[in-house]
Specification:
335 residues, 7% strand, five-stranded parallel β-sheet, alpha/beta, 14 helices, Hypothetical protein af1432
């Protein structure tokens, strides 16, 4: 059997017992890891805010903030949630293990620490972190590509960011699960990534497209889905990319889906997409006010195009004080 390649990383070790810190840091440094040692949970959180950490070993019983609290903080922060966390404890009861799992712990180590067990768990979790980093890199490339497409047209500046925020706000109003909100956040950025295959003379045409140009434009949801399909983490994003240009009466594209056959997430994205298009300036017209935009959307709901309930929910969001839909700072007109 071929040995696995040795991975090294920067490991945070948090324990209020100096002897334990010295033992753990010594074992890890011999293996080539860089170790950041802290004596309590508050210091651990400070390090996580400033340093790039690949793995956290947290003693459960610490002052300031215990291992459970630090673990939960790591796993609920989008910037750190993919850092593997090992809880180190002398507690043997199942209740403590269950609490650790609920806080998001990836693994447990029981005291007294056994060298081989420690190193085996660290190697395993660093491999997991490496896979996660590769996934994040792939997502970053897709997001960068999508934003580069947006940047071609000064009239669409900030469009992707607004759609991500609007769709998540609407999903929160509907009390949809966190994974669906995450899918909508990602889809807000990459929903039109398939336009990378649309020639600029069509994509940036100031006037109406002719029939041949429309045939090309209508391919972009299919192309976008194909570009993003290799990422398994995008399984909830793909239907949004493919179907956000469908209409409830079946007159949309690319598949001509009707009614409930159109995924709810795609209907959410199309609703906020239409609102943003109407309230943002275009070469052929000025931005409409929210009141004007919703009047048009209500008319199109009556035509059977859009989900009236979603439009009403979005309208109620727009009416709230300090609404996320009322951020005019991102609707800069092109110079």
């Amino acid at each position: 059997m071929c040995p696995s390649p040795i991975l090294t990383g920067t490991i945070l070790v948090a324990d209020d017992n100096l002897a334990n810190l010295e033992l753990l840091s010594g074992l890890l440094e011999v293996e080539g890891h860089q170790v950041r040692c802290v004596l309590d949970g508050r210091q651990a959180l400070d390090v996580l805010r400033t340093d790039s950490i690949d793995l956290a070993l947290l003693d459960v019983m610490m002052p300031e903030a215990d291992g459970f609290a630090v673990c939960q903080a790591i796993k609920t922060n989008p910037e750190t949630r993919f850092i593997p966390v090992v809880l180190v404890t002398a507690l043997t009861g199942s209740a403590e293990r269950i609490r650790g799992i609920e806080c998001g712990a990836d693994d447990f180590l029981s005291k007294p620490i056994k060298r081989e067990e420690l190193l085996a768990r660290v190697r395993s979790l660093l491999r997991l972190k490496q896979f996660t980093d590769v996934l994040e890199s792939a997502e970053t490339v897709l997001f960068s590509l999508a934003l580069s497409i947006e940047a071609k047209d000064p009239y669409t500046e900030g469009h992707c960011d607004r759609l991500a925020k609007y769709s998540v706000a609407l999903a929160e109003r509907l009390d949809l699960p966190a994974e669906i909100q995450q899918a909508l956040r990602r889809a807000g950025t990459v929903h039109d990534i398939g336009k990378v295959a649309v020639p600029d003379h069509i994509l940036l045409k100031p006037g109406p497209l002719d029939s041949d140009e429309w045939k090309i434009m209508k391919q972009h949801p299919l192309i976008g889905e194909r570009i993003c399909r290799p990422l398994k983490s995008f399984r909830h994003v793909l239907p949004i990319i493919r179907h956000h240009h469908e209409k409830l009466d079946g007159s949309g594209y690319p598949d001509g889906l009707k009614g409930k056959d159109i995924p709810l997430t795609a209907q959410i994205m199309q609703t906020v997409d239409i609102y943003d298009a109407l309230t943002t300036s275009r070469p052929y017209r000025k931005a409409l006010s929210p009141k004007e935009a919703f009047a048009i959307m209500d008319t199109e709901v009556k035509k059977g195009w859009w989900n009236g309930a979603l439009v009403k929910h979005l309208e109620s969001l727009a009416a709230e004080p300090s609404s996320v839909l009322d951020d005019k700072s991102e609707r800069k007109l092109p110079v």
